[in-house]
Amino acid sequence: MIWSKRGTSVSIDALRAIQSLLPDAELVEFDAPIDDGYAGAYNEQPCTAVADLVEGRRMRAHRIEGEPEVRFAGFLDGIQRARIRFHQRGVPIIEGTVAAVIRVRLNRRHVTWGRRTPIVSRKLYMPLSLLSCGQCSELGGTAIVDTSFDEKTGDLVNRHPAALRAVAFARIGRDRDEAERTLAELWCEERTDAEPLLIDGGISGSERVSSSSCAIGVIKSHTKLYADGEALDVVMSLKNGERSSVFAPPAQRRNPVISWYLRLHDPRGHDAMFGLVRIEASMGGDVAPRANDISRWVLAERTPNAMPDNRWDRMSYGIRDCEQFLRSIA
Amino acid sequence: MGPDVVRDSGLRTVPEVDRLIEALGRVVATERKPNTPHEFHFWTALDSPVGIGTIVRVDGRTPVNGQIPRVYGIVTEGFSYTDLLTPMHDVMSHDGVPNSAGFASSERSEIRLYSAAVLRQLPEEPLQPVPMGDVFLALEEDVNVALRMDGYLRDGSNTGIPIGVYRAGGTDATIFLDADFLVGPEAAHLNITGVSGLATKTSAVEWLLASLFAHFPESRGSVAAVCFNVKGPDLCFLDLPGKLDDGDRELYAKMGVPARPFEKVEYFAPYVPRGYALNTLRSNEALAHNVTPLTWGLREVLQYAEVLMNRDDIDAKADALIDFITRSVIDQTFTDPVLTRSHMVQSFQDLEDWFRDVLRGLENGNKESWRTHHVATIRKVRNRLSNISVRCAGLVTDSGPVSDLPFGDFEDRATYVIDVANLEEDAQDLIFARVVSKLREHLERRDLGVKHVVVFVDELNKYAPSDGPDTYVRKMLLDIAERGRYLGLVLFSAQQFRSQVHKRVVGNSGTSVFGRMDADELAAPGYALLSPATRTKLATLEKGQLMIRHPHFTQPIFVRFPRPAVMSGRTGAEEYPQGGEVTLETAVYRSLRARDSSVTMQAVEDAIGIHAEGDVLRALTLALRERTGDALTNFRARLPRHVTQSVQPRPQVAVLRGVPGDDPYGG
Question: Is the CB of residue B13 less than 8 Å away from at least one CB of chain A?
Fold first, then answer.
């Protein structure tokens, strides 16, 4: 048996091609797929970073003025899934699936955005230089991604199977980012400011998206916190319905955006990160009123909550809906 | 994914015609909820017109033996749920305040999931689990195939009898019963269950009889109906038009049944126990033209004496005596040394005289038995038989004139209603037993006048209960149910509680019809085969809706039928109030005038003159039986030529002795 019992997978032809190309490769039958965030976070160490404030001179908490307002017209999220299908003497051949979708809200119900087919992509991620199969770009109709070299350093990847997997997972994560970016750019091209899109994650990866006022990024994970010292105390002490001052995360290789922290739920009785999200929006305009308005939009997405997802305190229902949708098709 | 309008199909308004063409659902199956050859599951958009009882079609994708499988099913269960894991999540989502739910930014994802029972698979072999595929609303032609009606609706051999219209989405499909399975010979009989007062049982039968008369194929012969009106005025106005609305007329037109009352209806009713009026709610003078008295004499009754006697009465000895009387005494000159005179027993009065003579002879001779019959047995049988004319007064006459249904002259598509609503139970049983027996005898001899007779009996709970004593009537109903179809004797029965009717009666009904049901009744084991949703639908059916089971249908089907085109019992009773107690002359006048409008009251009074009451009633009954000639003339002809001496002869008084001539106080 060389096909998955759950979900869809790469074609049988691709798996057969690998078997014929690498006859000594061992089939991995009982490896559970690795989902989503695991891969993205594997090589990031939790840390704090200093960001320049663009609102006021010091970080402080701001009470959100006005009632929550339902404004988001669509939600964008992606998923990724990795699964080791073969290994040749410990060198893994990984099937990676990425998918992304925009779900729009019509009559308070979420449906797939009709302008763009959800993106679903399956590829085989394998370090070709460590396998005895030579160079190839596709097998049995499935694209091959060579993971022989570290993208950042350009060095040959360490032969340790875990390091090989980590590189492959990073490539899968990058492909997922790419899929999400494609959809976000399309939205920004076609939609107006009056129809903002809530994107799960940051928006600074795309110039077009980061400069568009109809794309709002909501980041749920805080491996890197853009506050330190007293500023961090302020962020950690935000109460339900409060936001931090607006700051500009270091751009580095990314595009400039403004950002702020927002507490969605009362953290009492929970850890300090409970209900804490970071919001990214395009630069420009009067940042304080914009941050207040966008925060009202995000707060409006607290109901219905995203239970039973264990990230429900930070996740909007629209994003959960996207994930559910993608899991059903990818 | 296409344009927004396509993706958002679940939210926009889809024209009816599109609903029929577009797939409205998709078959789904999981390991926990797999599809089988007899059941499958599918989901639909939230605004889909699918409901319990909807017929759908599944088009498979993978050919089997070169043929794309097509499956027809009927929705038997529905489920709805959201992506919530527990209700608590929703409570938390809205901070425990239900009102705030309306302000939520989005509705949760929700599913409409249906289970459907397979009606038919094409190809029929190999029989496989239902494949994944698109689900469509069944069109009219799909309904015909799904219910296998295509087998008996063929041109040239159409035996379809419309029972109602199946409606779902934009589909309006007439549902036909197969006449061969409704009135025989393949299967027969129909049973209706439903709570009282919701126009289910009587209305459905009236409608079905109209449909049967309109569509029963000529090639299958003639058909008539005998209806027992067992309660109220339900069946008393079948020949009068009722109120129909446009929806009803539309249904009549669609099903090709004329929206008019029955054309040939005859009513039969006994007289009231004391009086001259007929014992029926159809006693208004304006409706008397087709009401005929139902009166039986000794011979008619004695044959069914068993009906009127309980198990204790009928032992072997009593049975032997009754048989002797029937065979050797009735309608012949009977002489015996014990008797003081010869007897010609033709009426209950004659029979009483005969018994009295026999018993007197035994007493005088100090004998304890006569012709092997013990005197106690004779007394017992005398007591029971003599009692009959009292218990069934109005139906059974002492004097013996007989007025009966026109056995031998039944007309095609005619309805004969016997009103037994106001009679005592004994009389009802007697009428039922005798009428059904006569129908059976004539059908066996093929001389009834029609080839098939539908007998309608309501309140089957009472006449064929599942428990209680084994009565003659129940035995007869069982006999009809089990053997009637070979003779053309078809039972249309109705009751409120099917579970309390003898299993063999309802079990032999090829077709079963269910109106709105009582929840208690639905809890009976017999309904366990129905899904909970179907049972719920049955408990909440609207007026005019029925669930049908028929041999060709593998699953029950819900249909809508029109109001019967006849006047309802309640309206009839209001518009045609019951006639009051009348004099002998008035009763005769009304009866004769119904046959001949030229008859006058004066002429009737003159004819009756000083004739005795018994003679007048006898003559009237005989005259009404004459279906030709002048009614008044017939009546006169049946009156005795010599008026019975009704004035007692002056008693002979002893002559007084003469008064002495010299009596000073005389003169």
Answer: no
Look up the pTM and report it. Answer: 0.79
Contact across the interface for B1 and A118, Cβ inside 8 Å: yes
**β-pairing, B415-419 with B265-269?**
parallel
From B61's Cα to the closest Cα of chain A, the distance in A is 19
Cα B648 to Cα B614, B645, B654, distances in angstroms: 17, 7, 18
**Cα–Cα distance, A265 to A280 (Å, whole number):** 19
What's the burial of B61, exposed, middle or buried (CB within 10 Å: 0-12/13-18/19+)?
exposed
* Gap between the Cα atoms of A32 and A38, Å rounded: 13
What sign has the CA pseudo-torsion A32, A36, A40, A41? Answer: negative
Test B89 with A117 for CB contact under 8 angstroms.
no
Task: Write down the mean pLDDT value for chain B.
Answer: 86
- Report the alpha-carbon distance of residue B31 to residue A121 in Å, rounded: 27
Element housing A15 (H / E): helix A12-21
More confident residue, A36 or B423: B423
* CB burial string A203-234: b at 16+ within 10 A, e below: bbbbebbbbbbbbbbbbbbbebbbbeeebeeb
Would you call the peptide bond into B126 cis, given omega within 30 degrees of 0 as the criterion?
yes
Judge: B106–A307 Cβ closer than 8 Å, yes or no.
no
Two tokens, residue A313: 């305190």
As given in the structure block, the two tokens for residue B136 are 């469509």
Is there a contact between B403 and B625 (Cβ–Cβ < 8 Å)?
A: yes
Residue A92: cis peptide before it, omega within 30 degrees of 0? no
Residues 6+ apart with CB under 8 A from B88: none
Distance from CA of B131 to the nearest CA of A (A): 19
pLDDT at residue A4, as a whole number: 33
| Residue B127 in contact with partner chain A when CB distance is under 8 A | no
DSSP string, B132-180: SEEEEE--HHHHHHHTTGGGT--TTS--EEEEEEEEETTEEEEEEEEHH
SS3 B656: coil
Q: Please name the residues in contact with A252: beta carbons below 8 A apart, sequence gap of 6 or more.
A: none
Q: What average pLDDT does range B170-184 have in this prediction?
A: 92
Q: Are A311 and A103 in contact (CB under 8 A)?
A: no
The single residue listed with the structure tokens 């739920």 is: A265
How many C-beta neighbours within 10 Å does residue B245 have? Answer: 9
Quickly count helices (H) and strands (E) in chain A.
7, 18
What is the token pair recorded at B276?
A: 């001259």
User: How far is CA B402 from each of CA A114, B325, B484, B529, B530, rounded to the nearest angstrom?
Assistant: 84, 20, 27, 50, 50
Distance CA B383, CA B398 (A): 15
Instruction: In whole angstroms, give the CA distance from residue A150 to residue A164.
Output: 9
Distances (CA, A) of B573 to A14, B286, B362: 84, 12, 55
Whose tokens are 């099903």? That residue is B255
Residue B627 burial (C-beta neighbours within 10 Å; 0-12, 13-18, 19+): exposed
pLDDT in tens, B12-53: 444 555 555 789 999 999 999 999 999 999 999 999 999 999
CB-side exposure of B129: number of CA atoms within 13 Å? Answer: 12
Chain centre to alpha carbon of residue B640: 41
Which of B1, B6, B106 has its CB closest to that of A105?
A: B106
ipTM above 0.85, yes or no: no
Residues of chain B neighbouring A317 (CB-CB closer than 8 A): 105-106, 108
Query: Do the beta carbons of residue B147 and residue B119 sit within 8 Å?
Result: yes
Instruction: Name residue B122's amino acid.
Output: L
Indicate the residue type of B20: L
Q: How far is CA B266 from CA A183, B224, B291, B409, in A?
A: 80, 11, 6, 12
